Amino acid sequence: MNEKKLAWWEKEPLRIIEVSRAFEDLSKVDIKKEVAAKALLNGNIEHLPAIKHGPGAGLTDKGFYFKTRLARQENPDYLRKYLPEAKKVNLRSLIYFNVHSVDPEFAKKHPDWLQIKEDGNPIDDVYKTGMSFCINTGFRDWCFQLLKDLCAYNIDGIFYDGPIFFRDSCYCDSCRAKFKKLYSKELPSKADKQHPDFPFLLDFQSKSLADFLRDSNHIIKSINNDMLMYMNSGLRAPNWPTGRMNRVLIKAQDILGSEGGFLYGDLRNTPLWKPGCEAKLLETQANGKPRVVFDCIGHKPWTYPLPEAEIKLLYADSLANGANAWLAMSADVLQEPEVDAIKEINRIIAKNPSCFAGTESIANIALVWSNVTANYYEGSSIAMADFTGKIKGKEIGDLGSEFNGFYDALLRSHSLFDVIDEVSLEEPEILKQYQIIILPNIACLNKESVKNLQEFVKGGKRLITTFETSLYDEQGRRLKNFQLADVFGVNYKGNVFGPMNWDYITPIKKHKILTGITKKFIPAPTYGINIKAETAQVLMRYRERRQGCYDGLPAMSIDPAIVINNYGKGKAVYIAGTWGNSTWKFRFVDYHRLINNMISSFSTSLVALSDVPESLEITLRKNKDEKKHIVHLVNFTGRMSRPIKKVLPCYDVKIAIKNIRNIKTITTLASKKNLKFKEQKNGATFSVPKIEEYEVVVIDGR
Question: Which of 104, 205, 288, 675 is the most interior residue, by most CB within 10 Å?
Fold first, then answer.
């Protein structure tokens, strides 16, 4: 059988650069100077603007700097002049095509194309000043014609910024008619997630986006099969407002990418590991296709650049977790010193392509993010993003912070872990590679996932869960008991309590996972849930709730806080409260200690670090073809402020690695050193002399 021929974007690491000139007269750009400046960044692909935008970054029919029959104003053919210069420096050009924001003047010419809110009014506040067209209208064919005109040039592909629906759209006539034809129903309200037809709405909007992508990609490939096509896809967030469901969208595009490296406002509330987390989830959702995390040099919403160290960490964390590199900047900072941050990292990628393309994660722990729970569960917020703004969900059981607490604790314990989604839970072949699965308040589960998780634990594996995990079905309907009650060894008693702002839990048993937890009064998670232990052993109980913070020491209650249960050959730990949320907000030492104890007790450590700060992230990936193991080390150790202006280097970092044999060499890519190592049974120990923001260690062995 002939093997599938790989496309160029599948064979080589992508070092994508985007220099935005969306608001400029492109005919005035010095092309040779522009190309020379980009070449210095050592990228191999660019997102090239060929369309000038209006207010709100809006698309307009007067801003085309290439030949198209759709132009309502003739501008110089910038694209024809630019492309040959880019080819001279081996820079591939993907055209940046905004299909989500429209200049109001252009929008007025096509009122029947506008996205419409449920109240009948058009969307008119995209980036506060722009409007938006709907891809189910005549705008669709207009875009397709523009694609054909663009693909007549010697470009390398198209990047769609969009398409997207918004939190209160789209209820245009075209969407209403198409929905009724497909489902024989009227479009339900987006504000009512409990409406019986709400799942059809999610299905309709995601499939509408995928249809638009599929038809776009068909047009592009029919002209030149070597053209890459992809879009700005969904984030780790509820995707009911946007329709951007990555599992659906990846089928219609060539690679999967999202804005995991866009940092907004007060960075003290943004995890340093944000891009790496997005990369892990994209790897799960991409179905084997390449991934890319979009990192932005600007401290959003400004174009003002982040410090060089912060930019390097963004870039490095994306790469360390298996994504391709992508950095956006406005033209006004192209010559600023902060841009130098990516030059050396891009040089390393270019010289060592097999260490960055076609690698796979080696991890035996899985942390679950559930899009279904994010879409249906009340405790689902949306962090700040360009497309949605900030959307606040119910505080009780907030899914994002529950997930963040466990992610942060795993990273700080130097654990190797993947982020998988609810679709992964339906695949036993995926689950069997892990020793531990962590469900941080994954409230909504379907029967297939429940069955697979039962078999996972029964077969000898470990499950760690919190709060309302499995208490809802896949459409967010609350049930009488946990679907995983037999695995937890408890029953739900019908009540959630809190907030517990000054209350406590107490250990009542000795157990390996409580090692080092000696205090009698440990802060309680902010919200708890009443359960009755059946077969489970109670390890901690809640104290009686207090009326005020100085009401004395409370007596023990009957409510279990943490239990452990034997199920088949395996074990499950169930925490009857929002443990991840409180870990994330308060960083209680014993909360981290419990998570670390569970990880060390329940799994085999593949990598061990000695005498290093917990702010050093480690990931381990493998290149099967060249028998290389790649250790990525990202040093988040700053000076206790954000954005990070300078990292504190880590010196003489001792690493022990297991399950690698026949080691020939161990080398570093940033510092370019051959490391001495001591072989041990199925592994080796070695030291890395110095780690600044980023180091990559390549182990030549099996």
Answer: 205
Contact indicator for 295, 314 with CB cutoff of 8 Å: yes
- Alpha-helical (H) ranges within 382-511 are 399-412, 428-431, 447-458, 485-488
Q: What number of residues does the chain have? A: 702
Phi then psi dihedrals of residue 103, to 5 deg: -60, 130
Interior/surface letters 591-606, b for 16+ CB within 10 angstroms, e for the rest: bbbbbbbbbeebbebb
**415 pLDDT more than 80:** yes
Residue 433 near residue 427 (C-beta atoms within 8 A): no
The CA distances from residue 13 to 1, 7, 271, 317, 354, in Å, are: 27, 12, 26, 15, 8
- Boundary residue ending a domain (571, 602, 633): 602
- Mean predicted confidence (pLDDT) in 261-276: 94
Q: Are residues 597 and 624 in the same domain?
A: no
- pLDDT per residue as tens digits for the range 6-18: 999 999 999 999 9
Range of the domain at 622: 607-700
Q: Is residue 401 part of a domain?
A: yes
For 253, 656, 668, the CA distances from 359, given in Å and listed in that order, are 20, 21, 17
Q: What is the spatial distance between Cα 229 and Cα 223, in angstroms, rounded to a whole number?
A: 12
| Alpha-carbon separation of residue 418 from 369, 433, 593, 594, 683 (angstroms) | 10, 11, 20, 20, 22
The verdict on residue 169 lying in a domain is no
Task: State the DSSP H helix or E strand holding residue 602, giving kind and residue range, or none if neither.
Answer: helix 589-602
Tell me the C-alpha distance between 661 and 647, whole Å.
34
3-state secondary structure 638-650: CCCCCCCCCCCCE
pLDDT digits (tens, 9 = 90+) for 329-357: 999 888 899 998 899 999 999 999 999 99
User: What pTM, to 2 d.p., does this model score?
Assistant: 0.95
